[in-house]
């Protein structure tokens, strides 16, 4: 194996392929990054796989000799980041890989290639979606995904495909996100669902830029199936697959109420700033109180002889006055995921969840492609 490649192209590809390497691999070779070269048109191929998630980056390179080598992925990523802005040359010398860049030279010990598992094949493409739209949608959806590995089903994002529409749902039991977007299905009657690890989905979605993302799904939608994503990037192409989570995602769509008794609209940035200020005095696991009435919105936090804070901001309130409270960080997460300048908060009862959506202005129609449902917290008396 012997090749030459541009430093920035190699650095980006190695960093992307190595991002999902396990911290404590079950076998040593799973900490490796597989380097392959061939003259068939693929050029330089960099791969990682931990039996759950695979990554494969293809970059243009000048191939002098075909071959393959397995080296420590994290070490190679650290080395590439430190290299000067000059072409990189890499070759195999005995049981070692030699990397030179300008006056810098590194010699890396190789791992046994024959012990490295074969990457799973990419499933048949189900459809494609704009990379920018997909990245935005996933970033909003994962806001509500759980982080408790004791509840693995809730650490995933449910992808529902129905014809020309995709829905992304996530929940950690205290909040729920629903993001809907259009895409280009392989067939107009395409219908499928998948429960994808939220962390993998988030990392994958933001790594594709400037082109459509091909989405490929195989299996029953959970457990025994895999989902794949593939797209072109500056300096090559990238492909990743991951095993779907096993288990039944809760039926959460019915949690969105069809009617509301109180609807309030408020500047998103003003509300974010006010929540951040007021929550400074909120004790751990206590709520920030929100009181909506004809005079606007009053926020307060703190209790008794401890520090307290209160702030009033302008709000357009329609319907009954209402007082409720939320976990301030969960509220900020939802507000931060909305991109419109105004947010609408819709309520039924103080003890029932609120639905937060984006609005272009105080009198405009709400944009319902992203909905964030948030459970209230009990207020201290």
Question: What fold name stands as the CATH topology of the largest domain?
Answer: DNA Polymerase III, Chain A, domain 2
The whole-number mean of residue pLDDT values reads 92
Strand content: 35-45%
Tell me the Rg in angstroms. 25 Å
Q: Based on CA inertia axes, which overall geometry fits? A: elongated
Largest sheet: 9 strands, antiparallel
**Structural class of the helix and strand makeup?**
alpha+beta
List keywords for this structure.
381 residues; alpha+beta; DNA Polymerase III, Chain A, domain 2; elongated
Please provide a written account of the structure.
With 381 residues, the protein is α+β, with helices and mostly antiparallel strands. It has 3 domains: 2-115, DNA Polymerase III, Chain A, domain 2; 125-253, DNA Polymerase III, subunit A, domain 2 (DNA Polymerase III, Chain A, domain 2); 256-374, Roll (DNA Polymerase III, Chain A, domain 2), CATH 3.10.150.10. Helices cover 16% and strands 44% of the residues. The protein has 6 helices and 27 strands. The chain has helices spanning 7-18, 73-82, 131-141, 198-205, 268-278, 328-337; strands at residues 2-5, 32-38, 43-49, 53-59, 62-65, 67-72, 88-93, 96-101, 104-109, 125-130, 156-162, 165-171, 175-182, 184-185, 191-197, 212-218, 226-233, 236-243, 262-267, 288-293, 296-302, 308-313, 316-319, 322-326, 342-347, 354-359, 367-374. The strands form 4 sheets. It has a 9-stranded antiparallel β-sheet. A 9-stranded antiparallel β-sheet has the order 15-11-12-13-27-26-25-19-23. A 5-stranded antiparallel β-sheet has the order 5-1-7-8-9. A hairpin with a 2-residue loop joins strand 7 and strand 8 (96-101). Helix 5 (268-278) packs antiparallel against helix 6. It is elongated. It starts with a strand and ends in a 7-residue tail after the last strand. The relative contact order is 0.11. The mean pLDDT is 92. InterPro entries: DNA_clamp_sf, DNA_polIII_beta, DNA_polIII_beta_C, DNA_polIII_beta_cen, DNA_polIII_beta_N. GO terms for molecular function: 3'-5' exonuclease activity; DNA binding; DNA-directed DNA polymerase activity; identical protein binding. Residues 129-250 form the DNA polymerase III beta sliding clamp central domain. Residues 1-120 form the DNA polymerase III beta sliding clamp N-terminal domain.
């Amino acid at each position: 194996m012997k090749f030459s490649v541009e430093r920035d192209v190699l650095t980006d590809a190695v960093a992307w392929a190595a991002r999902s390497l396990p911290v404590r691999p079950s076998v040593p070779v799973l900490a490796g990054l597989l380097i392959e070269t061939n003259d068939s048109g693929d050029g330089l191929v960099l791969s990682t796989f931990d039996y759950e998630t695979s990554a494969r980056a293809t970059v243009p390179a000048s191939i002098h000799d075909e071959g393959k080598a397995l080296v420590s992925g994290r070490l190679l990523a650290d080395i590439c980041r430190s290299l000067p802005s000059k072409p990189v040359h890499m070759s195999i010398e005995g049981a070692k890989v030699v990397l030179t860049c300008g006056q810098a030279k590194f010699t890396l010990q190789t791992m046994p290639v024959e012990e490295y598992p074969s990457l799973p094949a990419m499933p048949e493409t189900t459809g494609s979606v704009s990379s920018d739209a997909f990245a935005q949608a996933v970033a909003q959806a994962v806001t509500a995904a759980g982080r408790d590995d004791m509840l693995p089903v809730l650490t995933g994002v449910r992808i529902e495909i129905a014809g020309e529409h995709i829905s992304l749902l996530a929940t950690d039991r205290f909040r729920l996100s629903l993001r809907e977007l259009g895409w280009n299905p392989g067939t107009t009657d395409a219908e499928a669902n998948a429960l994808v690890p939220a962390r993998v989905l988030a990392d994958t979605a933001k790594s594709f830029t400037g082109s459509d993302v091909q989405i490929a799904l195989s299996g029953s939608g959970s457990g025994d199936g895999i989902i794949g994503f593939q797209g072109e990037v500056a300096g090559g192409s990238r492909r990743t697959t991951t095993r779907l989570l096993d288990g039944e995602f809760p039926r959460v769509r019915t949690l969105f109420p069809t009617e509301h008794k109180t609807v309030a609209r408020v500047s998103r940035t003003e509300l974010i700033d006010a929540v951040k200020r007021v929550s400074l005095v909120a004790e751990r696991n206590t709520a920030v109180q929100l009181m909506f009435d004809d005079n606007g919105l009053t926020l307060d936090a703190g209790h008794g002889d401890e520090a307290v804070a209160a702030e009033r901001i302008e709000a357009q309130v329609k319907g009954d006055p209402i007082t409720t409270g939320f976990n301030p960080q969960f509220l900020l997460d939802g507000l931060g995921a909305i991109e419109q300048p105004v947010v609408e908060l819709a309520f039924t009862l103080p003890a029932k969840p609120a639905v937060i959506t984006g609005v272009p202005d105080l009198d405009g129609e709400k944009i319902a492609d992203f909905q964030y449902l948030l459970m209230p917290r009990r207020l201290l008396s």
